[in-house]
Amino acid sequence: MRERLIASGEAEEADLVAADLVDGFYIGNAARGLIPAVLR
Fold first, then answer.
1. Using one digit for the tens of pLDDT, what is the confidence trace for 2-33?
2. What are phi and psi of 21, to 5 degrees?
3. Is the Cα dihedral 17, 15, 28, 6 positive or negative?
4. Residue 40: pLDDT band by 50, 70, 90 thresholds?
């Protein structure tokens, strides 16, 4: 999944800090796909 998302331009590798995630993000794997997530 990671390779496909990066190859298609839907994702990119980056160093993140907590502030980068405040508007929400996705957690995913090949079995479940992408799942929206938020910090609480």
1. 899 999 999 999 999 999 999 999 999 889 99
2. -105, 0
3. positive
4. confident
Residue that has been written with the tokens 């800090």 in this structure: 17
Q: What is the dihedral of CA 3, 24, 27, 9, to 10 degrees?
A: -10
Q: Looking at the DSSP assignment, which residues form a beta bridge with residue 25?
A: 37
> Where exactly are the structural domains of the chain?
15-40
What's the one-letter identity of residue 34?
L
Burial (CB count within 10 angstroms: exposed 0-12, middle 13-18, buried 19+), residue 11: middle
Cα–Cα distance for residue pair 29/22, rounded to 1 Å: 21
